[in-house]
Amino acid sequence: MNLRKYLAESERQRDFLSTGDTFTISINEELAIEMPVVYHNGDSAMIEIDETAFGILEACGCEFEEEITETKAKYRGRPVKLNKPMRGDVKKYKVYVKHPKTGNVVKVNFGSKEMEIKRDDPERRKSFRARHKCADKTAAKDRHTAGYWSCRMWTSKPVSDILKGK
To answer: Is the pTM of this model over 0.85?
Structure first.
């Protein structure tokens, strides 16, 4: 079964699904997998998936369009992990990414050290994501911007899990 076909068949969930929500796939009566929705535009959805869920869905016959990304690189002569947010030095968080146009590894600083993220309140999360147009920010074109990573922090997934890479 193709994941796109599964999304298309699930009319109700597809119509009411939005970026920042959790998408649930029921494998059988005892097993359901929940995945955060990173991007959704009505036609397709980009979801975050861990290795365990990926293995289960792959065994069920789902097909994925997977981004092939490097996990390690060098920034100013020292090795760094790419696309993994961590506590920052200049700002609250930082992440190292490969710039799509230049191919250079850049450090993206984002978040204010003075402010607390109050994203557990659904109204505040919805307001933040609307104000910053998070639904329009995709990994392909915006991964090297602070806005993309801020929006990613404002999903329903706990910040501790994001920082651990889960």
So the answer is: no
